[in-house]
Amino acid sequence: MKICRTIAEVRAELAPHRSGSIGLVPTMGALHAGHLSLLRAARAECDTVVMSLFVNPAQFGEARDLDSYPRDEEHDLAAAGEAGVDLVFAPSAEEMYPPGYQTWVEVTELGSILDGVFRPGHFRGVATVVLKLFEIVRPDRAYFGQKDAQQVEVIRRMIHDLALEVELRVLPTVRDADGLALSSRNRLLSAPEREHAGALPRALATKDLHAARALLAQSDGLEVDYVEVADFDPPVLAAAVRVRSTRLTHGFTRLIDNVVLEGDPT
Predict the structure, then answer these.
(1) Is the sign of the CA dihedral 157, 114, 144, 205 positive or negative?
(2) In this predicted structure, what is the pLDDT of residue 116?
(3) Which residues of the chain register pLDDT less than 50?
(4) Catalytic annotation on 160?
(5) Which CATH class is domain 184-258?
(6) What is the pTM of this model?
């Protein structure tokens, strides 16, 4: 497995592989079984598998949220190697956003609803870094999880609107035994906080907007940002909650989740 830190290195390494198919799995690290499902799918479907490993500062609204994001590069590189990744692109923030950087991509309508209300500028950061990764890697396929349904929809719209030549592959959400969707932020939860967080998947499992809102409103230890039906492809019942914490300096861990209401998440 090759580890590249610069854009020039990635392009040079991938040049001999352009005759075959290239799959890209964008990640911010802290890999879990959900990421591994994407890597396995890419390995099965592509000749060359590229994983990006970059905690993108442009999609964080607050410095404390960025600072608290879990990081473990040694673990992530080992997991990537075991999953059969051929190349890991692990750039610095300065490599992706050099001094004087001022070009941004914004999917205006889809980026301003749901999480976009509570995290202004978040999807601008997502769309920008994903488009830049597409340009650097030039993948035939890119792999994302259904757990981040709004992110998927933003990227789908960007691909359509900009006529990008990349196939979007969306894989089902991977969950723990207690129903909680796997997320890098889950490791920030204490055992009691995780019990409170379990109300989120239980509410969404009803697949009923009013029932989900009622269940979450009655749940201890949670503050609800939204519970909404989103007319995505496929439609989803989506929610975001903040799990209250006395350990974290900002006082909560924010979790998002969704369930597909119809159609096939792939």
Answers:
(1) negative
(2) 97
(3) 264-266
(4) no
(5) alpha beta
(6) 0.94
Domain ranges for the chain, please list them. Answer: 2-171, 184-258
* pLDDT number for residue 21: 98
What pLDDT, in 10s, does the model give residues 128-162? 999 999 999 999 999 999 999 999 999 999 999 99
**Domain 2-171 in this protein, CATH class:** alpha beta
Looking at 35, 75, 122, 196, which residue is catalytic? 35
Rounded CA separation 222/27 (Å) = 27
The DSSP secondary structure of the chain, one letter per residue, reads: -EEE-SHHHHHHHHGGGTTS-EEEEEE-S---HHHHHHHHHHHHH-SEEEEEE---GGG-SSHHHHHHS---HHHHHHHHHHTT-SEEE---HHHHS-TT-------TTGGGSTHHHHSTTHHHHHHHHHHHHHHHH--SEEEEEGGGHHHHHHHHHHHHHTT---EEEEEPPPB-TTSPBP-GGGGG--HHHHHHHTHHHHHHTT--HHHHHHHHHT-TTEEEEEEEEE--SS-EEEEEEEEE-SSSTTSEEEEEEEEE-SS---
- Residue 87's nearest CA partner among 12, 165, 183, 31 is 12
d(CA 160, CA 42): 21
Note the pLDDT of residue 83.
98
pLDDT of residue 62: 78
Q: Give the per-residue pLDDT at 87.
A: 98
Beta sheet of 236-244, edge-to-edge order:
222-230, 236-244, 252-260
Nearest CA among 111, 133, 128 for reference residue 26: 133
Whole-number Å distance between alpha carbons of 178 and 81: 28
